[in-house]
């Protein structure tokens, strides 16, 4: 067995962080990025010395700046290529283990035995059981249930839309919209080696946990080519990223042979007559050719819903409200503002820009909810910490909307 095959996942992440940097990286930066102590980093750097020597490379320290890997580009590329082919053994933190288990269960086609999870994550079955206890609340927040039975194993039960939403949240976690967009803007040269691109290594590290990274840009290019060739659909950058993330996860589930077609879930009966369905079908056909897979017809419908919801959001703004049928939207907006005023003890009636902005946001938001589409707000945690009173007021005001539309308003929407 070669030395490279004895690499731990932690050591691999450290190598990838340093391998192609042209300037020293401080221990503080590495610590923040990899969530390791300075002492652990120093210990791992020392352990990597012999491996680096095999590739004519070495770690050098720059006083007051940090550390970097010294050597020529060809040797660095060879090490990178070797790491990609090697099967490193994984060291999981409790958080990483629980996220990995959640992903495994969400894409599983049948119950997973405890011993399989125990072997994969290198912990006892008792630890696996404890992790599942901690995942109960996460699943409950997504309207999902963890089912555990002796001799049966463990599985996650729930509606297809809720499973998709949970998977999307998992992939979005710790990756901002800007980082996704940066990934899609990689140059042609960088695309050839997405793993070793200058993109924040923590993003690539997170993606590698869940999806086949070599397919990410293939999916993005396929969608871009189809959208650029038509004039029916116009997506915002954020909606575009959400669609790509949805497709990346869908392709991953197909690769795992997940049979997620559910007979009892109601996708719009007239969906095949929609303009967006034609575009969705073109995207699916292109993905099938590029990835050499067969995509279920049901997936076209889910892509259509994404396109319709996003397209509706882009086209519908306050200037389009000009008929009697739009009165209910005005009333809904007024109800929200009135409820927020009551909670905050301030008057917002004269703020016309607030009314117009909220009106333009509520229409696509409500329609997304009715279609079962979810958005993810990467700023949610920060918003709740910095503006707790305003968030609480909006949350309570949101109840008035929930009551009228019969759909609960998720925290991600409240944050926006």
UniProtKB/TrEMBL annotation:
InterPro entries given in the database record: BglG_antiterminators, HTH_11, PRD, PRD_sf, WH-like_DNA-bd_sf
Keyword Nucleus: no
Keywords of the record: Repeat, Transcription, Transcription regulation
SUPFAM superfamilies associated with the record: PTS-regulatory domain, PRD
A family per Pfam: HTH_11
Domain of life: Bacteria
Domain PRD: 211-317, 324-416
PANTHER family recorded: CRYPTIC BETA-GLUCOSIDE BGL OPERON ANTITERMINATOR, TRANSCRIPTIONAL REGULATOR MTLR
Protein name listed in UniProt: Transcription antiterminator
Protein source organism: Metabacillus bambusae
């Amino acid at each position: 067995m070669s030395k490279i095959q004895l690499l731990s996942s932690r050591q691999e992440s450290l190598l990838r962080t340093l391998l192609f940097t042209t300037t020293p990286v401080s221990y503080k930066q590495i610590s923040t990025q990899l969530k390791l102590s300075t002492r652990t980093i120093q210990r791992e750097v020392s352990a990597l010395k012999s491996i680096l020597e095999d590739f004519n490379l070495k770690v050098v320290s720059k006083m007051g700046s940090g550390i970097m890997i010294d050597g020529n580009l060809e040797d660095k590329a060879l090490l990178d290529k070797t790491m990609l082919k090697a099967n490193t053994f994984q060291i999981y933190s409790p958080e990483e283990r629980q996220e990995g288990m959640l992903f495994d269960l969400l894409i599983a086609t049948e119950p997973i035995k405890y011993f399989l999870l125990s072997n994969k994550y290198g912990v006892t079955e008792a630890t696996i059981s404890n992790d599942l206890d901690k995942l109960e609340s996460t699943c409950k927040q997504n309207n999902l249930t963890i089912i555990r039975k002796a001799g049966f194993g463990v599985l996650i039960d729930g509606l297809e839309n809720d499973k998709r939403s949970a998977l999307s949240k998992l992939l979005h976690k710790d990756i901002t919209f800007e980082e996704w967009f940066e990934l899609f803007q990689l140059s042609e040269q960088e695309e050839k080696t997405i793993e070793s691109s200058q993109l924040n290594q923590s993003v690539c590290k997170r993606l590698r946990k869940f999806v086949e990274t070599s397919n990410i840009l293939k999916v993005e290019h396929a969608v871009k080519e189809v959208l650029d060739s038509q004039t029916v659909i116009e997506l915002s950058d954020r909606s575009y990223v959400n669609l790509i993330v949805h497709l990346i996860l869908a392709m991953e589930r197909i690769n795992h042979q997940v049979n997620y077609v559910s007979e009892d879930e109601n996708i719009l009966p007239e969906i095949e007559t929609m303009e967006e369905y034609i575009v969705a079908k073109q995207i699916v056909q292109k993905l099938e050719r590029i990835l050499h897979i067969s995509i279920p017809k049901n997936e076209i419908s889910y892509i259509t819903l994404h396109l319709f919801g996003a397209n509706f959001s882009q086209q519908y703004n306050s200037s389009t409200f000009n008929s009697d049928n739009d009165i209910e939207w005005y009333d809904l907006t007024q109800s929200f503002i009135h409820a927020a005023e009551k909670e905050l003890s301030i008057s917002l009636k004269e703020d016309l820009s607030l009314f117009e902005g909220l009106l333009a946001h509520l229409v696509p938001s409500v329609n997304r909810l009715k279609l079962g589409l979810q958005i993810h707000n990467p700023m949610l945690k920060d918003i709740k910490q910095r503006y707790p009173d305003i968030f609480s007021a909006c949350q309570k005001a949101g109840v008035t909307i929930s009551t009228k539309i019969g759909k609960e308003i998720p925290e991600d929407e409240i944050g926006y």
